[in-house]
């Protein structure tokens, strides 16, 4: 009886998308490890550097909740890092004209200098990584990954749950 059930049930790794998912997981792990090594001499981690990048990208106009949404992380995990970086003098909190309680997160002068140093360290690595792709492939790969992410963000997939 069980042998018949196993023959009919698809092996969980047979779907063609699984190879991509596993490679994305491996890439994420490699990026975190590489980022940690890159910014460790600056007293940073990949997680802190990622939040700093999101703050820099928003030019000080994002609350913790907005940062978390932009990065696809939980508000609580971003709040923890923001609190640490405020304590370290890297971030400051500013009044938000649109919301009394949700402060805006900004880089301090110290934070701007630190982020500039991290960026200077990153750029040669970014160029090296991008060099393995043919012209146009990086933009297309980014588009394809964004399409998959957008589909996941639409919510539960019909028939996928029990």
TrEMBL record:
Record domain HTH marR-type: where: 17-150
GO biological process, one term: response to stress
One Pfam family here: MarR_2
SUPFAM superfamilies named in the record: Winged helix' DNA-binding domain
One GO MF term attached to the UniProt entry: DNA-binding transcription factor activity
Taxonomic superkingdom: Bacteria
Protein name (database record): Transcriptional regulator, MarR family
Organism listed in the record: Afifella marina DSM 2698
């Amino acid at each position: 009886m069980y042998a018949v059930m196993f023959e009919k049930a698809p092996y969980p790794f047979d779907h063609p998308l699984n190879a991509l998912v596993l490679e994305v997981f491996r890439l994420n792990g490699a990026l975190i490890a590489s980022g940690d090594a890159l910014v460790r001499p600056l007293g940073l981690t990949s997680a802190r550097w990622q939040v700093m990048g999101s703050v820099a990208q928003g030019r000080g106009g994002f609350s913790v909740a907005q940062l978390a949404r932009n990065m696809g992380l939980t508000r609580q995990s971003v709040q923890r890092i923001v609190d640490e970086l405020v304590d370290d003098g890297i971030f400051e909190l500013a009044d938000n004209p649109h919301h009394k309680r949700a402060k805006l997160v900004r880089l301090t002068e110290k934070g701007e200098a630190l982020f500039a140093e991290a960026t200077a360290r990153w750029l040669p690595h970014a160029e090296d990584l991008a060099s393995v792709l043919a012209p146009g492939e990086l933009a297309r790969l980014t588009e394809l990954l964004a399409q998959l992410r957008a589909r996941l963000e639409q919510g539960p997939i019909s028939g996928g749950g029990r």
